[in-house]
Amino acid sequence: MRPTLPAMITHRPLSGKARLDDAGARGFARLAPPIPLFALQPLLGHIVTTIAGRHPELIARLGDNCRKRFLIDPHNLPFFLLLQPDPDRPRLKAYGRARDIEHDVHISGTFLTLLRMIDGQSDSDALFFNRDLTITGDTEAVVALRNALDNMDVTLADDVAACFGPLSRPVRAVIDLTFKFASPKP
Amino acid sequence: MTQLFKPELVCPAGTPAGLRTAVDAGADAVYCGFQGPTNARNFPGLNFTVAEMAGAVSYAHDHGAKVLAAINSFPTAGRTELWKEAIDEAVSIGVDAVIVADIGMTQYLSKAHPGQRIHLSVQAGASSPEAINFYCRRFDIKRVVLPRILTVAEIKQVHDEIGCEIEAFVFGNIGMMAEGRCALTNYVTGQSTNMDGVCSPASHVHYEEDEDRNLKTRLGEFAIDCIACGEHAGYPTICKGRYNVSHKQEYYAFEEPVSLNLTRLLPDLMRAGVTALKIEGRQRSRAYVKAVVSAFRQAVDAYSEGGEPDISNLLALTEGSRETQGAFRSKTWR
User: B119-151: per-residue pLDDT in tens?
Assistant: First the structure.
């Protein structure tokens, strides 16, 4: 008979700080004024099409995982983003939180955490170790996405800024200012 | 403090961009592998095509750094051609050394490419002067990467009795202290760390978080840990899991989620005759590579010039936000 590993441990009580931080973020998302998502969709479509066209090596590193659906969940924003990096039809769409979205991978953290990660400023393993980043679903797909993004010399945040054409520099400056003012003081 | 011999800083790269980051941050040498099972970090989206490896060698050499090709997994019977092709490609590209573990591939490399510098991988598990000298005599290896089971004093003893250089790990993940012989992943998933190059394959890892932010980690059909909200997480490997065993509940029965950090022992390692200091983490991001390589560059330079570096900023990058000196300080670290 094949032996089994011993029974696993049970859940422990929540830590108060973590509960409050998370509740705060999710509370903000619930209370924030509704964003007209239809106005965001063309911009998101433009961003994902531009990035897929500029970075074929990113799609190549994803392999078959480019067909997967990545649900990106910024806790403190009132919407999800659904990314499908399919080179034939790349898609990035925003959905209201009330909807149940079919997905293969769920990536969640605060907006700033996720932005820092795609901007190459934070190590995603360290974010995971520190519980700032949560991954559920198809782990292989998310590991492939992480590694593909990490091989980009420019960051996705640069590419997103570039999608704003003549406004790219101000947009990048806003992103940088966001990092500067949101960073914890030493 | 007196000046010390300055060892080579050997740094990880999982992607071409990671290699450039490591070189720019001050690596003396970067180790990396081809895509596929020929190296011990065979993860999705990671590693180099042959063309990317050639570009990496050019970039590194242009900036005064070396590239070490890790071809350090073990081919099973009937699969050796893939490993031989990888060795041939690496040599033709002009890598500075090939890191091998399998004794058959070591033999192939030494015969097919005499003169190519050979490093013996930690996966070979060679920890005694007798074992290391065998590889020196038979295959003319130039360097051994020591398993993480020796104290600094033992490393000094080994150094005094062997005919090649020593490379020692100084930072990053540490797993079971049986380098190259761990079969836990193979038992649970059917894929082998040593033969398929993948410890805890991502395709078999599943995370479940409940409404209270407790995180359950599964590998295949086994739950290997349950991390309470606010608790730090570790890698999803069996050896870092918690189990209820006969004498203790919720027990790290194999190893704890903790990272090796030997910054405080660097002067001792340098005095022990270690030629190269190795940072683990080909699976980690460029942000990690930049931070860790920069910190160790400053530390090594400062120690070698008789100074005292600031080594306080690496904890945030460690597994479980905890660090250890492991067996390097004492055999009783647990």
Answer: 999 999 999 999 999 999 999 999 999 999 899
Quote the pLDDT of residue A22. 46
Cα A61 from Cα B27, distance rounded (Å):
25
In the predicted model, what is the mean pLDDT of residues A112-138? 88
Q: Which of B323, B200, B293 is nearest to B12 (CA)?
A: B293
Q: Which chain A residues have a beta carbon less than 8 Å from that of B285?
A: 120, 122-125, 146, 150
Determine the distance in angstroms separating the CA of B222 from the nearest CA of chain A, rounded to an integer: 7
Contact by Cβ (8 Å): B22, B291: no
Q: Are B77 and B38 in contact (CB under 8 A)?
A: no
DSSP secondary structure letter of residue B320: G
CATH of residue A118's domain is 3.30.1050.10
A11 in contact with B at a CB cutoff of 8 Å?
A: yes
In angstroms, the separation between the Cα of residue B130 and the nearest Cα of chain A is 37
Average pLDDT, chain A: 79
Using alpha carbons, select from A57, A65, A178, A55 the residue that is nearest to residue A115. A178
B153: number of Cβ within 10 Å: 11
Q: Do B317 and A140 touch (CB under 8 A)?
A: no
In chain B, domain spans: 8-174+258-329, 184-251
Domain count, chain A: 1
The verdict on B137 touching A (C-beta cutoff 8 Å) is no
**Distance between CA atoms of B217 and B221, rounded to whole angstroms?**
10
Single-letter code of the amino acid located at B153: A
ipTM value for the complex:
0.90
Nearest CA in chain B to A129: B233
Question: What confidence score (pLDDT) does residue B1 get?
Answer: 52
User: What integer best gives the mean pLDDT of chain B?
Assistant: 92
* Range 42-61 of A in CB contact (< 8 A) with B: 61
- Greatest alpha-carbon span in chain B: 60
Give B119's strand partners: B99, B143
**Interchain pair B15, A129: CB under 8 A:** no
Return the closest-CA partner of residue A96 out of A28, A160, A30, A27.
Answer: A30
Provide the domain limits for residue A97. Answer: 35-182
Relative orientation angle of helices B103-112 and B80-93, to the nearest 10 degrees: 40
Residue A133 falls inside a structural domain: yes
Domain boundaries B8-174+258-329, corresponding CATH code: 3.20.20.70
On the question of pLDDT at B153 being above 90, the answer is yes
Which chain B residue shows the shortest CA-CA distance from A130?
B232
Residues of B in contact with A14 (CB under 8 A): 212-214, 228-230
Helices within A36-167 (DSSP H only): 37-54, 56-62, 111-118, 124-129, 139-150, 156-162
Q: Which residue of B has its CA nearest to A66?
A: B45
